[in-house]
Hints:
Blueprint: H1 2-21, H2 38-49, E1 56-64, E2 70-75, E3 81-87, E4 94-96, H3 101-104, E5 111-112, E6 115-119, E7 126-128, H4 138-152, E8 157-164, E9 168-175, E10 178-186, E11 192-196, E12 201-205
Antiparallel strand pairs: 1-2, 1-12, 2-3, 3-4, 5-6, 6-7, 8-9, 9-10, 10-11
Amino acid sequence: MRKLLIALLVTGVLLLGAGLTGLFLSNENRDLRDDYTLEELTENVETLLENYSESLKISMIYVFEDRDPYFLITEVDTDRGAMELRASVVTGQIYPDRSIASMWNVKYMQRMGNRRIIGAGMMGGYYRDFDFDNELTLEEALERAQNYVTLKTDGYVIDKTYHTFYGYYSFHLLNDSEIVGILRVNGFDAQVSFSRFNGTLAEIKK
């Protein structure tokens, strides 16, 4: 019960924070359609990014045949990963990618003053104060990722493309030279999480 209450509290704080700051576009006054174009959705994401004090940009767009497009957001000054977002083709709404990324992102997704949330859910929630820099090096994260691929997949390969976020690292996993998902390694406790693409990836726009 205590674990459930902590998870609900964390979720409530995040939703409240997003609502108060207006960082995510609301469904109110939006037409329910199924034909929002990629250009329209990209404009919505760019409008969202204007709300941040940091200078942010869209670095990559993953276009799926039957799923909402995925937007990789990076910092202009550092080229470091900032956020992983999705855009609904039905409502035009921008929302965090439904993966562990929103929980592990310690700078942009889960700020509460000087306290950063780095874990919550069925395994319980826990808090920790720290700087934005990952404690795990890229080499250590890559080693963790390779161990996971070796033990948990059937011949998948880690692509040379990677991104360093505030709180974690992300790597593309390939199967027969095709990207099948994103593997993330927590930058503090070295947890590994693999998100397989549910839809058919049509192209990646850079």
